[in-house]
Amino acid sequence: MITPDTKDWTWVLRRACDECGFDAASITGEQVPAMLRMNAASWRELLTGGADLRTRPRPDRWSPLEYACHVRDVCLLYDERLVLMLTEDEPAYPNWDQDETAVEDRYAEQDPHRVADELAAAAEALAARFEGVKGEQWQRTGLRSDGAHFTVDTFARYFLHDLIHHWHDVTAAGSPSAG
Fold it and tell me: Which segments of the chain are extended strands (E)?
């Protein structure tokens, strides 16, 4: 059983992540599209490379396929949230239960090749949307359901950490996908 992650990860905007090494302060929002595309390409390679994608390294950890489904859905969700931030004044994002989604959408049973295609498409759409952000738009704001306040810039860097961290989750020593 996966224990829901209730940690407030917004601290990654202030200091480097001890687990994956990502340092949000070292990049700009303008760098996010290229980094997002590189991350998506890595997921495609993993999902189409014939590795064991369905085995969980531990009962309380998602499998590589489940993480890939989550990354795909995070890209879709952040695209929706970015649109809200760019078109509304200080929108509040609807809550999203990632663990409930994983169960309801049967992440572990999805086809890896289809997930690879869907993840690539979702990442490309979001990368293109981030590329369209100009000037003062980077300072537009939005609120997460728990009250966390983001600008488009901090939102972009926070989002990128999520993807990089999950890549680390599946490639760290002891993961089924680690070589």
Answer: 141-143, 149-151
Residue 93 CA from chain centroid, whole number? 16
pTM: 0.90
Put residue 28 in one of left, alpha, beta given phi > 0 → left and psi -120 to 50 → alpha.
Answer: beta
Least confident piece of the model among 11-15, 27-31, 95-99, 167-171: 95-99
The per-residue pLDDT for 99 is 84
Determine the Cα–Cα distance for residues 149 and 154; give it in Å rounded to an integer.
9
Contact between 43 and 119 (Cβ < 8 Å): yes
Cα end-to-end span (Å), the chain? 26
Please report, for residues 2, 66, 152, the alpha-carbon distance to residue 103 in angstroms, rounded to integers and kept in the order given: 10, 10, 30
In this structure, are residues 160 and 20 in contact, taking their beta carbons and an 8 Å threshold?
A: no
Angle of helix 152-171 relative to helix 32-47, nearest 10 degrees, comes to 30
Q: What is the pLDDT of residues 157-171, one digit of tens each?
A: 999 999 999 999 999
